[in-house]
Amino acid sequence: MKDTYRHRGLRRQLIEQIRQRGIRDERVLSAIQRVPRHFFLEKAFEEWAYQDRAFPIGKQQTISQPYTVAYQTELLEVEPREKVLEIGTGSGYQAAILAVLGARVYTVERQELLFQRAGQLLQQLGLGGVRTYFRDGTKGLPEFAPFERIIVTAGSPEIPEQLKTQLKVGGKMVVPVGTPDGQRMYRITRLAEDHYAEETFARFRFVPFLGGLSREEPSS
Ligand code: SAH
Question: CB of 66 within 8 A of CB of 46?
Fold first, then answer.
């Protein structure tokens, strides 16, 4: 796989579109410039990698639209060195953006095939520092908690209680909450041990946040 001058030019155009739609955080925009999104898509979609669209990545899942990735990342307000938990590794693209922003990323995926592919790809891109786990993200990663930031990239029917308790005091979680037809973006801030603040933002449509694991059948 190659990242050419043309790809970089397409990313610059994409960033301009995202900026026009209201993303202001320059660090987020420059992370999008630095991560070659076409590496995260199936070959058939490579041509369209720099359109502001979601695409299938297998197992009925999608890589989020770049605007949505930028929106969630901007709300997360990540600082370098912070410990960030991502639920829903998918293609690994959002994890790569967080890693480029200097976060210490822990990412969890319930689809075994996607978990395997994303791990390999992040490794190839020199982002092997991202820790990937094949786990049910509804339970978070209690053994590595607390986290300064948590980002959920699947639509949750409610605010995930188990994840809230894995936030550090002062930490923030960005999560889309609603029905499969649409969710509202929430930002939860843990103000004290037992005290959380909620803010709500725009509406989106994510694939569902599901419990349990989905394993690959061993090929015989
Ligand atoms: N962040 C991804 C977007 C992937 S779509 C990217 O940048 O490509 C959401 C992902 O969440 C899907 O891969 C889906 O399998 C996963 N998912 C849904 N419920 C989950 C759960 N309980 N635990 C872990 N992953 C989950």
Answer: no
68 C-beta closer than 6 A to ligand 1: no
Whether 153 is in the pocket of ligand 1, judged by its Cβ within 6 Å, is: yes
Q: How many whole angstroms separate alpha carbon 83 and alpha carbon 28?
A: 17
pLDDT digits (tens, 9 = 90+) for 127-180: 999 999 999 999 999 999 999 999 999 999 999 999 999 999 999 999 999 999
> Are the C-beta atoms of 93 and 63 separated by less than 8 Å?
yes
Closest ligand 1 atom to the C-alpha of 210? 19
Domains of the chain, residue spans: 53-204
Atom of ligand 1 nearest to the CA of 154: 9
Q: Does domain 53-204 have CATH number 3.30.830.10?
A: no
- Contact 87 CB / ligand 1 (< 6 Å): yes
